[in-house]
């Protein structure tokens, strides 16, 4: 019988999770014993409204490069994990006319050109591009998580603010906002809910066969153009079928999270879930938006009577405090992954690339230069940007070249839509 | 109220003969075909709840994506892995609850050595590969069951025969409840399990189910004599358990005696599929569902499990999730029209009555009961129509932006949201004129919001706020709070809300490189910088005066003493206060066009430009009518039946 960790792990804050001694128990031990190499993983985390209020060096860009960089206020929260993080500066997004939404659309996706309306036409996002290659035997292809909801807006582009992940050039990937729902996707319904497990096991394949047959019958009644949604449905059903045979998470138990009381607790719960999902190898690609682009989140919880977006335009102090808060969440995630030890003695972070970026650089001007980009995990020997160091790239280096480099490092090839990739950023898979 | 049946006939004629060319693009024009859409997560939840009768509040669905602000648009409903995953679990939960509600609680009484046999010993056989005790009945047993209340119950007894090799043919089992209602079933020699279902009225309390090995027993035989007679040595009947379900719901329609494979047993399942899929179940699908029913029955403790397993497949099916186009204007698909009517008003699938109207060909007529407008009025009068008011208030008027967990504890957020939802609800219920959204100073508020507004209301919460300077939804605390920044009101964001929600003219985002406003000075002075700076004034000159007119209300919607605004629009108009802002909003037809286009987009499931010819058409049809008339005009439009956009 395998050792088990506290069922309360997921309920505690991330700090408590870091402190737990026996995390190696949660790595799927059967596969580890079978000699399966720990696979690569990607977590893309986002923060809104840029990193600076006019002067990059005041809040974000360290003056020194290399390992001896001194943290400006925005990066202060990285201190506990700075040896695991690469600070990349000098990166630039395409010079597109537009504000948060336009820059958000292209923040993690390649720009293919401009549409008739002058707005960018983009491809699928980095997580969409790498997820199939990373998925392997993990039961879920990827998670797309968020802690701040979308709201109605009529401008055709404004909903771009709500999406980091895009399944295609035109379809954003719907986000999951409810921690309990994420948990159930990862681990199934709790005992006592739904059908008795013996019944579910006995009938599951037949139910999926039946709805697949329904889909084929329905397909005959639809026009070719209308079948796209049906194809998506069938893809999702195949995912459910795959999970029928996926390794159970029996050696990686956890208790479902509750309903978070406020946005900070929500972010903490989502970060716990990300660590849990990777540790239990339920998924290998995750994108996470603790807030939407152009976030109007109120900053009362940081002691400021304003909202994040307004602060990013007018109020350097709360803006920097908000940036530092998100960087702090990122650092907590990196720390928790570092603390999770695999059976071979390596840490989960050693196999996981964790990025942090924003839709813009400078807040007041919606700047597309000097974008904030952090990359943690998977140290390699030939890194263009050594882990633990501040690497100053030539001014104007396209941020898409960095994403292309990561795609190539993780999957062996970069989509040509990105343009030329940077050199190796993390240890190639 | 407009007499809609005439309009329906007129609209159809108009489309053929009189509509100008711009209105009737040929089939190869841009975007001619309505697309398949998926139910939005919100609609999926409501549909599952309506179909199953199970509240799914605790179940998560992924966030809806949006188009034009709404979650129910053809272009805004991708089918993601997360959605199907969540649907999978929700369908399982809903189907279980549905089967439970259909059959009621179940009592399973194992037939074992504790049950007194009638004279003959019952032989129990424990097979090593089957942990269940199998009982072979050689004459008869009595089993006691307990009905919790008076009602209709179903007694289920699964039976199988064991006959020695030499014997051919059948055995007969008999099941009797309280020595009165009985059923007999023939069992073949192969040992196949056959369930006998007796549907019987029972009073609360203990009842006796008598199981007999009735081989050779004629129905009019003397029972006492039979029970004293020889045991059935060579031919035994297997019985494991007796299950009592109930009280069952009225939807259970089996006669007193039925076999488990009788059509009446799967009838509730087919009715569920018919409603969920908005079409009669065809033979192929029936076969699939019947086979799932058997598989679940076999795997689970009872046939309720079979219904739940098959019900799960009904609810997970793409036939529920995907909404096909409404056909074409020439050949509309009445069931698809019914579905889109139900989605617009109830955010859910049609009920049986609406579906029946569609299937008997009466929906697309002016039939006084089943016709399009009669049914639409019925849908709008149903309590489920509050979902339309909620959707419009949240997604169009933007009250969804309020998050109680980020606002000071004393702000009555729920009451604020309720005021705005209620205003939309009354507009639809009472067919209010469109202008009332800002012109009507009467409102209904909960006591905590009355306190917040520092007003006294009638007992039902009704009050006219005209004297307090409020002007309809413009001064709802929900709207004023949702557009604030921290504890400070934002004139720019209030103005942007007026432009977006009431005029469908959202301002352009500020150009790159906008300079920061000085946060240290009075907001009015800071905004004056907009006018002074040519880079800003182009947009802000038309924007800021709208927001400054609402300066009499603080960041949380309370009245505050404030001098009237003196900011002038480019044409010199000064809007000193909310009432003058309301009058300005109503001074041209822009708000009417905007409201009609928003209600139209919600109802149609596709974006509608406020300047589109369709909006002109609907405004003409509505005339002096109100909100309901707009919904009628949209549903009456050829576009709704798959006509050209």
Describe the protein.
The complex is a heterodimer of chains A (429) and B (645). In chain A, the strands form 2 sheets. A 7-stranded mixed β-sheet of chain A has the order 5-6-1-7-8-2-9, sandwiched between helices. In chain A, strands 3-4 form a two-stranded antiparallel sheet. Chain A has helices at residues 14-19, 29-33, 56-59, 100-105, 126-135, 179-187, 197-220, 228-245, 263-279, 308-314, 316-339, 399-411; strands at residues 41-46, 85-92, 111-114, 120-122, 143-146, 285-289, 352-357, 373-376, 390-398. Chain A has 429 residues and is an alpha/beta fold. Chain B has 645 residues and is of the alpha+beta class. The longest helix of chain B has 23 residues, at 81-103. In chain B, the strands form 4 sheets. In chain B, strands 2, 3, 4, 6, 9, 11, 12 and 13 form an 8-stranded antiparallel β-sheet that branches. In chain B, strands 5-10-7-8 form a 4-stranded antiparallel β-sheet, with no helix packed on it. Among the domains of chain B are: 106-248, Sandwich (Jelly Rolls); 389-585, no CATH class. The two termini of chain B are 27 Å apart. Chain B has helices at 4-17, 41-52, 81-103, 223-228, 263-277, 283-299, 303-316, 318-321, 334-346, 352-359, 372-381, 386-396, 413-429, 436-439, 447-453, 477-482, 491-503, 523-532, 534-548, 578-585, 590-604, 613-622, 627-636; strands at 37-38, 106-110, 123-126, 133-137, 140-147, 151-163, 170-177, 181-188, 194-202, 205-213, 235-239, 241-245, 257-259, 322-323, 442-444, 462-464. Chain B has 23 helices and 16 strands. In chain B, helix 21 (590-604) packs across helix 22. The chains are: A alpha/beta (429), B alpha+beta (645). Chains A and B meet through helix 6, helix 7, helix 8 and helix 10 of A and strand 1, helix 3, helix 6, helix 7 and helix 8 of B.
């Amino acid at each position: 019988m395998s050792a088990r960790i506290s069922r309360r792990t997921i309920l505690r804050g991330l700090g408590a999770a870091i402190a737990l001694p026996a995390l190696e128990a949660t790595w799927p031990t059967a596969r580890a014993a079978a000699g399966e190499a720990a696979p690569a993983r990607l977590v893309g985390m986002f923060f809104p409204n840029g990193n600076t209020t006019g002067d990059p060096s005041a809040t974000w860009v360290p003056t020194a490069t290399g390992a001896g960089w001194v943290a400006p206020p925005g990066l202060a929260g990285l201190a506990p994990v700075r040896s695991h993080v690469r600070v990349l500066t000098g990166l630039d997004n395409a010079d597109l006319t537009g504000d948060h939404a336009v820059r958000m659309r292209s923040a993690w996706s390649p720009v293919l050109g401009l549409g008739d309306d002058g707005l960018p036409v983009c491809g699928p996002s980095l997580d969409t591009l790498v997820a199939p290659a990373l998925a392997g035997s993990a039961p879920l292809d990827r998670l797309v998580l968020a802690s701040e909801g979308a709201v109605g807006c009529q401008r055709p582009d404004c909903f771009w603010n709500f999406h980091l992940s895009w399944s295609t050039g035109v379809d954003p990937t719907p986000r999951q906002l409810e921690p309990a729902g994420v948990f159930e996707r990862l681990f199934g319904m709790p005992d006592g809910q739904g059908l008795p497990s013996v019944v579910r096991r006995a009938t599951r394949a037949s139910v999926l066969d039946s709805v697949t047959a329904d889909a084929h019958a329905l397909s005959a009644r639809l026009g070719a153009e209308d079948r796209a949604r049906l194809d998506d449905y069938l893809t999702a059903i195949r995912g459910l079928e795959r999970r029928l045979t996926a390794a159970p998470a029996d050696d990686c138990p956890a208790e479902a999270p509750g309903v978070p009381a406020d946005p900070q607790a929500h972010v903490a719960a989502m970060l716990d879930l990300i660590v849990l999902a990777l540790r239990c190898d339920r998924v290998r690609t995750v994108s996470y938006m603790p807030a939407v682009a152009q976030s109007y989140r109120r900053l009362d919880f940081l002691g400021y009577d304003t909202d994040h977006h307004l602060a990013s335009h007018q109020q350097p102090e709360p803006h920097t405090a908000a940036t530092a808060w998100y960087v702090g969440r990122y650092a907590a995630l990196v720390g928790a992954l570092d603390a999770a030890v695999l059976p071979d003695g390596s840490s989960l972070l050693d196999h996981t690339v964790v990025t942090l970026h924003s839709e813009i650089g400078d807040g007041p001007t919606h700047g597309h230069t000097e974008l904030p980009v952090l990359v943690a995990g998977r140290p390699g020997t030939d890194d263009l940007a050594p882990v633990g160091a501040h690497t100053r790239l030539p001014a104007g280096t396209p941020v898409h070249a960095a994403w292309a480099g990561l795609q190539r490092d993780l999957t062996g090839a970069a989509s040509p839509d990105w343009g030329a990739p940077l050199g190796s950023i993390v240890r190639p898979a | 109220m407009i007499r809609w049946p005439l309009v329906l006939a007129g609209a159809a004629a108009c489309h053929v003969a009189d509509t100008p060319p711009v209105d009737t693009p040929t089939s190869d024009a841009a975007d001619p075909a309505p697309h398949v859409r998926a139910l939005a997560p919100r609609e999926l939840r409501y549909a599952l709840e309506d179909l199953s009768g199970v509240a799914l509040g605790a179940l998560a669905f992924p966030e809806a994506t949006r188009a034009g602000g709404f979650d129910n648009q053809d272009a805004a409903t991708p089918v993601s892995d997360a959605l199907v995953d969540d649907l999978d679990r929700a369908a399982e939960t809903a189907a279980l609850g549905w089967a439970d509600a259909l059959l009621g609680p179940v009592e399973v009484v194992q037939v074992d050595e504790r049950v007194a046999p009638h004279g003959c010993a019952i032989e129990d056989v424990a097979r090593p590969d089957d942990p269940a005790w199998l009982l072979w009945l050689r004459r008869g047993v009595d089993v006691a069951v307990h009905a919790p209340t008076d009602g209709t119950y179903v007694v289920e007894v699964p039976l199988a025969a064991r006959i020695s090799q030499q014997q051919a043919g059948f055995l007969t089992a008999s099941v009797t409840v309280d020595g009165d209602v009985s059923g007999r079933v023939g069992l073949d020699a192969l040992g196949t399990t056959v369930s006998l279902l007796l549907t019987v009225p029972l009073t609360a309390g203990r009842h006796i189910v008598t199981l007999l090995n009735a081989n050779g027993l004629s129905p009019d035989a003397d029972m006492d004599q039979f029970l004293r007679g020889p045991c059935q040595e060579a031919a035994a009947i297997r019985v494991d358990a007796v299950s009592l379900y109930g009280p069952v719901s009225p939807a259970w329609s089996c006669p007193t005696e039925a076999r488990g494979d009788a059509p009446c047993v799967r009838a509730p399942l087919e009715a569920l599929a018919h409603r969920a899929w908005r079409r009669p179940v065809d033979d192929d699908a029936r076969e699939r569902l019947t086979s799932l029913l058997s598989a679940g029955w076999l795997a689970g403790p009872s046939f309720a499990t079979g219904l739940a397993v098959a019900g799960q497949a009904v609810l997970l099916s793409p036939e529920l999730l995907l909404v096909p186009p409404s056909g074409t204007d020439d050949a509309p698909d009445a069931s698809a029209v019914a579905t889109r009517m139900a989605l617009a008003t109830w955010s859910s699938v049609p009920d049986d009555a609406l579906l029946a109207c569609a299937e008997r060909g009466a929906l697309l007529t002016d039939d006084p009961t089943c016709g399009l407008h009669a049914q639409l009025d019925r849908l709008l009068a149903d309590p489920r129509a509050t979902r339309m008011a909620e959707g419009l208030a949240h997604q169009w008027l933007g009250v969804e932006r309020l998050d109680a967990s980020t606002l000071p504890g004393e702000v009555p957020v729920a009451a604020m949201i309720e005021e705005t939802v209620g205003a939309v609800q009354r507009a639809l219920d009472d067919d209010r004129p469109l202008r009332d959204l800002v012109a009507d100073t009467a409102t209904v508020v909960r006591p905590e919001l009355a306190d917040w507004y520092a007003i006294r209301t009638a007992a039902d919460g009704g009050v006219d706020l005209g004297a307090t300077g409020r002007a309809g939804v413009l001064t709802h605390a929900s709207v004023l709070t949702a557009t604030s920044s921290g504890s400070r009101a934002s004139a720019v964001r209030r103005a942007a809300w007026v432009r977006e929600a009431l005029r469908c003219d959202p301002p352009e985002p500020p150009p790159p490189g906008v300079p920061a406003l000085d946060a240290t000075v009075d907001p009015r002075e800071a905004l004056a910088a907009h006018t002074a700076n040519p880079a800003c004034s182009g947009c802000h000159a038309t924007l800021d005066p709208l927001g400054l007119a609402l300066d009499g209300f603080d960041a949380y919607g309370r009245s505050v003493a404030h001098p009237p605004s003196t900011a002038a629009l480019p044409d010199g108009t000064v809007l000193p206060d909310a009432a003058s802002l309301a009058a300005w909003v109503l001074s041209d037809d822009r708000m009417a066009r905007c409201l009609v286009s928003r209600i139209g987009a919600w109802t149609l499931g596709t974006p509608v430009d406020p300047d589109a010819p369709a909006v002109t058409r609907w405004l003409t049809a509505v005339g002096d009518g109100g909100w309901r008339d707009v919904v009628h005009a949209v549903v009456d439009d050829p576009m709704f039946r798959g006509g050209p956009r």
